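cron nightly-structures :: item 1 of 1
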Amino acid sequence: MSEQPERERWPLVLVGLPGAGKSTVGALLAASLGVPFVDLDAEIERRTGLRVAEIFATRGEAAFRALERALSAEQAGRRMVFAVGGGWMVDPMNRALLAPGALVVHLRVEPASALARIGAARADRPLLAGPDPMSALADLARRRAPAYAAADVVVDTEGLSAQQVADVVRALR
């Protein structure tokens, strides 16, 4: 078996704020690369039978983050695209579980653009379900900025379609 070139790092992990396009871009990217796609939140929902909002409400954020960590450990070394929740990058253990091979790509988005993309679905986003989702999202962006800065690559999604973002990420590989 031949060695993969350095740029062939797996899994390819998409991180960013809610509304950055991780799930949409991830599915497009995986299809174009011919690899599986796993959306972390959707997989947690499938395995638990509960929506993310229900897990937050009934078990708490710490329990959700533990589920994220456990599922992340399963992905180490897999040739796949992995879209993770907005807070995944804040826990350094998640990144360590996928090291050294993972390529982490931050899909950067302005909070106002992210909120517009989310639209009415913000009710399904536990951290944005309050009376002022714009302030909540701006606060998340501010608090998570240091964690997102640790990504291997940053792709600015402003003004780009999901397909264009997927094309940019694919070209970086």
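cron nightly-structures :: done
Strands lie at 12-15, 37-39, 81-83, 103-108, 153-156.
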